[in-house]
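We modelled the chain as a single entity of 542 amino acids. Its sequence is:
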Amino acid sequence: MSRSSAVAVAAIVVGMSANGAFANAPRLSQEDCTALVQLAIGAERIGLPTTGAQITSAEWQETRDHGSFCKVLGIISPVDPEAFEIRWEANLPEYWNEKMLQYGGGGYNGIIPEIRKTPTLGLPSLPSPLAQGYVTFGDDSGHERINANDASFARNDEALQNYAWMHIKKALDVVRVTAQSAYGTPVQRVYFQGGSTGGREGLTAAMRWPTDYDGVLSNYPTAWFMGLRLWGAALTQAIYPDGSAGWIPPELVAEIQTRSIARCDALDGIEDGLVSNIAECRAGAAQFIEDMRCSDGATETEACLTDEQIDRTIKVYHEGYTLPYALANGMTEYLGYNALEGVAMALGSQPDYAEPVQSGPHAHHAARAYEFFTYFVNQDGALDFGSFDIQNPGSYSDRLVALSEMIDATNPDLSAFADHGGKLILVHGTEDPSVSPLGVAKLYDAIVSEMGEDRTRAFMRFYLVPGLAHGSGSGTYGPAWNNLAALDAWVESGIPPAGEVAAATTEAMRGRTLPMCDYPAWPQYRGEGEVADAESYACVTD
């Protein structure tokens, strides 16, 4: 366990009595809980436009894993009668540590996140944040989804604004009022945690409301959401024109992945199925793909790649794109994925293009972009997605910029958050197939460029982790670590994360540990010592 995590865990243990309650902590009774349904939360107590909020139920819960707590459900009413309510949930522990932990969502949201679970990428063996005394809460961002790809809510402007950013602050204000009314004491700390959309929401919280939040755990964030969806449109144009000449069948995608891992596995000092030296691996990608190019202009083969597959699909997947115009915060370049370094390309099981575009039969990112363009970009749904040119968006140019300013979390100036004393831990995985890890690294570099390295490191850490894909337990390694304790120790005691260790959660790697290396460092095997022990690895940059 790292120094910072050990301090935080010790504080938890010392602050708890034999029956699991925090000594001298504000206490909530069952009667206090059930009385919350009478609490009126007027619009004036919420920092963004609403018509107020109400608590629809407050029930006392007795559990083995989370202790006793009050489960509160409620709604935040919209201004536009055609918009949707924001549904929210808060869990108020019997004994409160005077801190709140907001849980972010995922994808297009539309459901309340599970707010009693371990934080994203956290150690599941530790007590839940609720059991540790945190008020935990989350919301559905202002709509109920039909399925994971459903973006139809965006036809309503208020629902779109809520999803993009407003729901974060609205839910925070409502739950803050609820908690302070319940316990009769002010909130001392507010943290945010989440991954993917939830990771973007965490960055949004720090950027838009820097004095409302004390700490953020942002994991594999969709920070440049517009860039990601434009990339899905670019991928569509790479794959499907000319009789789907750019489509690569699943068998060949798997072969590319297998060969990529084989050529790069040992670059980190050990052959174990885990590619850690991504920079050197990417340096050899051009020659690798040339070696897989079909000879003599062959166009139909299962063992090599055609010119169209390489020059269109592989290029977009691996290298990304550059726009001739700028979106919010000057963003023009979406970097690609480690598609030639061991990450499988999600190109779908069939070559034929058809609408509606569906993940599985079609390329995954094409499907996600299709919903986005249908409902976010042209809210009436009448848009020819199959031929949309991101390089020349025509009459949609202003709309793309407006959406980027609304949704994206790409502001490199976090001075107000840093000045408030806020701390930010950013984590991304090299194996992420959903959000470009190269793009998130570029965002971190932009923050350093804007604020300076010393000032950035005074409030922020970025870990680019080998073996992590997109989600807790995902990827070759599936790292988990004591992230909430590390964040809390940094905020409360001024002890920055140092010597953090990630435990593997995948079956193939279970029992192994690796150091969490500060970007741009990565873990290299020292050449001796137990392979499964983090002590056998050094964080290096070359």
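As a brief sanity check on the tokenised model: The domain at 3-223+409-540 is CATH 3.40.50.1820 (Rossmann fold). The first strand starts at residue 40 and ends at 41.
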